[in-house]
TrEMBL record:
It comes from Algibacter amylolyticus. GO terms for molecular function: allantoinase activity; dihydroorotase activity; metal ion binding. Coiled coil: none annotated. Keywords: Hydrolase, Metal-binding. Residues 52-427 form the Amidohydrolase-related domain. One of its GO terms (cellular component) is cytoplasm. This is Dihydroorotase.
Length: 446
């Protein structure tokens, strides 16, 4: 069991920044202190002078495309990109092919991840209109939660039967994570634009087709149902300012029954970027106005929004370059999410402590992830060292996604992830991977 010592770090944890050392034994953090001396010559020492030490990021929403869609990405390639971006744990979505809507198919994905993932992993179980019996079999200590598509589904995963939806909400105490867009509103808006433009609808109309109204109708209904049934509801990827009024900051996160997430792209881009980025920033829900973005930031900083995630969802460049109706929604983000948020720190938009709260601590609290998301003695040593003054530019040469592109291509970030430790093992250092198997299946304190 190799002992490691990180010296002279600026440790960011639980709303404080302090200078200190971290001793790692095996998978765990053994000791945190102002000055820790190596007790033997066998201790591997890492001098973090001038760098900041963060807990590994927990990304609560990714699509790694395996099984069935692996020309876009797979667990192996996308988890490596995540590690390079300081994301040490991910929760992956069920809309693969086949979908994770039975226990058998869910466990097949866990088997793949056990063999190939570079980061700690868990998966959402997918709900449908007819799989309640399977939902009730899920072991809530070993599975992150339940995902329901209340809009923008793939396959048969749109849950649009009100009676079934209410029964699911009543029947489980797992976290129910939802994609909220009203299908009827979107279909009506799309028809209007198809009548006017045909299939080649200008991308700038995407946030008008997948409108504020579509988002608000769906999310408000989901919240109303959660209040009626007492369900534990988590609303994914808020994209509108109007929706932020549905959430509260009056109680601690651990006591909230209804929580919210915002994604990197909705904090970074606005509809002003469609002319330049085109379908590369086509997401569902859509990137909307600058005003929406400003209101999302406000709600994030005042704690109505609890978590920052990526909704990492790669497609090939060829797929994205199709006309509007054929270009899929989604884009790759795990490698660049933390650098993007650190860029917002440099712009004085958010503090380092708040970044760690929203990307590390709060996903751990919300999903009750066991011994991760903090720099604490006795916790798993998932740690990230960051140099805040080491600029680099996103280019095709350094993009790690299987799809080979990024919406951030050409952007220069001031901050760089220099080291990623996973369960006490150094797995990434100065743009190089140490090809050792250190990833573990996430477990949950429930």
């Amino acid at each position: 069991m190799k002992t490691k010592l990180i010296k002279n770090a600026k440790i960011v944890n639980e709303d404080t920044i302090f200078n200190g050392d971290v001793l790692i034994e095996g998978d765990y953090i053994k000791q945190i202190g102002e000055f820790i001396s190596p007790k033997s010559a066998d201790v591997q020492v890492y001098d973090a002078e001038g760098k900041y030490l963060l807990p590994g990021v927990i990304d609560d929403q990714v699509h790694f495309r395996e099984p069935g869609l692996t020309h876009k990405g797979n667990i192996e390639t996308e988890s490596r990109a995540a590690i390079a971006g300081g994301i040490t744990s991910f929760i992956e979505m069920p809309n693969t092919n086949p979908q994770s809507t039975t226990i058998e198919k869910l466990e097949e994905k866990f088997d793949i991840a056990a063999k190939t993932s570079s980061a700690n992993y868990s998966f959402m179980f997918g709900g449908t209109n007819d799989n309640l019996d399977e939902i009730l079999k899920v072991d809530k200590t070993k599975v992150a939660g339940l995902k329901l598509f209340l809009g923008s589904s793939t396959g048969n995963m749109l849950v649009d039967n009100p009676e079934v939806l209410e029964k699911i909400f009543e029947s489980t105490d797992m976290v129910i994570s939802v994609h909220c867009e009203d299908e009827g509103t979107i279909k009506s808006n799309l028809k209007d634009h198809l009548d006017k433009f045909g299939d080649d609808i200008p991308i700038k109309y995407h946030p008008i087709i997948r409108s504020e109204e579509a988002c608000y109708i769906s999310s408000s209904k989901a919240i109303e149902l959660a209040k009626k049934t007492g369900a534990r509801l988590h609303v994914f990827h808020l994209s509108t300012g109007k929706e932020t009024s549905l959430f509260t900051n009056k109680i601690p996160l651990a006591e909230k029954k209804i929580t919210a997430e915002v994604c990197i792209h909705h904090l970074w881009f606005s509809d002003e970027d469609y002319d330049k980025k085109g379908t590369l920033i086509k997401w569902n829900p859509a990137v909307k106005t600058k005003s929406d973005r400003d209101q999302l930031w406000e709600a994030l900083l005042d704690d109505r929004i609890d978590v920052i995630a990526t909704d990492h969802a790669p497609h090939t460049k060829e797929e994205k370059n199709n006309v509007y109706t054929s270009a899929p929604s989604g884009g790759p983000l795990v490698q660049h999410a933390l650098p993007a948020m650190l860029e917002m720190f440099h712009k004085e938009k958010i503090s380092l402590e708040k970044i760690v709260e929203k990307m590390c601590h709060n996903p751990s609290i919300l999903f009750q992830v066991e011994k991760r998301g903090y720099i604490k003695e006795g916790y798993f040593a998932d740690l990230v060292l960051v140099d805040l003054n080491n600029p680099w530019t996103v280019t095709q040469d350094n993009i790690l996604y299987k799809c080979g592109w990024s919406p951030f291509e050409g952007a220069t970030f001031k901050s760089r992830i220099t080291h990623t430790f996973l369960n006490g093992t150094l797995v990434y250092h100065n743009a190089k991977f140490n090809d050792v198997k250190a990833a573990k299946r996430l477990t949950f304190n429930r």
